[in-house]
Amino acid sequence: MTTRAAEQVDILLVDDRPENLLALEAILESLGQRLVRAQSGEDALRCLLEREFAVILLDVQMPGMNGFETARMIKSRERTKFVPIIFLTAISKDEEFVFKGYEVGAVDYIFKPFQPEILRSKVNVFVELYVQRRRLAEQEQRLHEVERQDLELRHMREMLESEARQAKSLAESAEELKKLNEELHRRQLDLERAMTARSRFYASMSHELRTPINAVLGYSTLLLERIYGPLNEKQVEGIERTQKAARHLLELVNDVLDLSKIEAGKIDLRLQPVEFPALIEELFVTVRPLADEHGSTLSIENRASDAVKVVSDPRRVRQILLNLLSNAIKFGNGKPITVVCDRTDDGGVAIEVSDQGDGISREDQEKIFHEFVQLGKTQLQDGTGLGLPISRRLAELLRGSLTVRSALGEGSTFRLQLPAKADGRTLRLVDQEMPREPVKDREPPRTSNGEPERRPTTARGAMP
Fold this sequence. Notes:
Elements (H helix, E strand, L loop, with lengths): L9 E5 L3 H11 L5 E5 L2 H10 L4 E5 L7 H10 L8 E5 L5 H9 L4 E4 L4 H109 L8 H31 L8 E5 L1 H17 L3 E5 L5 E5 L1 H17 L6 E7 L5 E6 L32 H11 L3 E6 L5 E7 L6 H9 L31
Parallel strand pairs: 1-2, 1-3, 3-4, 4-5, 7-9
Antiparallel strand pairs: 6-8, 9-10, 10-12, 11-12
Helix pairs in contact: 2-3, 5-6, 6-9, 7-8, 8-9
């Protein structure tokens, strides 16, 4: 009985006599297996280190390390402890030796001379057992491989299903996002149209309101100048109140127009050199009558070694500082007003307008820069609540800043900081974000020095 060539195994033949090895090879040749010779116990142990054997035929009587010692060494090694050993002997036929052979781990004990067919049959049994074990090991390995592949396939299927669910969810999210973007775009267009309509309304309202207001101011001035005849005291008082209310209404119209132009990105900046403190000294001339009326003195301190020149819009800078000075006078409780001018590290200018009034609480310091917010007891009598918000926005358009420092009972300090050179980048950013449709408006009346025709009011935050 032979095995297929593809399933050949190794058989170890151990004997110190070459003729015995040759006889064993002749007997076992018909099995078709690989026969490996070893002529000593030491030689056999070396062979066992190099390859794996299905069965070992081991001679008992050998010089040096005999068969029992060799078997004991083979069984002591983890790798070879289960290799079947058949003892071959021609001398040790006593039961004592046979028992010793089984004791050291032999599976059989054959005496010489032996029948070739019996030896061949016994060896073939162990060869077949070895082949079967190897097949089982291979099948087990293949089974593990199949299980591993099945696990991988199951994991891959789960991943694909999860990815499919995620893809579906992403598709649904993308569709929802698309709808939201479309809705956002629609609302943005609606907002732009609404802001454009509002800008047009503000411009139209300003135009339509300023004409009759200016007429009221003009006729009331003529009346006060007695062009139409003499007036008694009560008539003069009534006309002056009418004129004051008309001026306040004109201030409100002009402030709303300025605010709408800023929001629409239509504010006009004309950049040119501006020198400090010369510009502040010019404004002192404008606000001195108001300061005298409230009993406040005006002083300026130039902390720079010489004049500070920046490139900005002088008209808008005057508008900001005129509002700060007017508010300081109105809320300064008749105490001195101080303006400090200094050069900044980047070559710009910082102007601080300080009063010694009641001050502003911490929680209200940001509110004063919100539209139509007024602080104090007499807000409903005067002012629009737009002066400081417009001033801050103008400062930002000029690439500067407007901040406040204040504490209750200690007065307030407003700080305007301007860069060495303003440019149109900030303005262009505003233009890009707002509707581009033109808004028709008319500039407010100008005084002889080019300033808008306005008079200071009593509300913190109102434009003068």
